[in-house]
Specification:
The protein has three helices and three strands, in the order αβββαα. It has helices spanning about 10-40, 75-80, 85-95; strands at about 55, 60-65, 70.
């Protein structure tokens, strides 16, 4: 990095060091973002095509896992935390897809 904006060498050195620090920080930040993107993977939009579960509470009662096709007809139990059936079906689903 080169800087000759000031009259004195010491002032130019300080400015050049600040520029160098900012460039190094930018490189470090871009590496961190790339690493984070590798870990996170591609972002998906939460829309109708990307739902995991659907909850129907009226006129009939049903909770359905759209990936594994598992259905539970007691949504109150699911909303209270009884997710064992969903967990088992998802484990089977991912085990069979490997």
């Amino acid at each position: 990095v080169e800087c000759q904006t000031q009259r004195y060498q010491d002032a130019n050195r300080k400015i050049a060091m600040q520029i160098l620090k900012s460039k190094l920080w930018e490189i470090q930040e871009s590496k961190r973002r790339e690493e984070l993107n590798k870990i996170k993977g591609g972002a998906t939009i939460a829309s109708w095509g990307h739902q995991i579960r659907s909850y129907v509470l009226h006129p009939y009662k049903l909770v359905k896992d759209l990936r594994t096709e598992y259905e539970e007809t007691n949504p109150d139990s699911v909303l209270d935390g009884n997710l064992d059936g969903f967990i088992e079906s998802e484990l089977k689903y991912f085990a069979s897809s490997r």
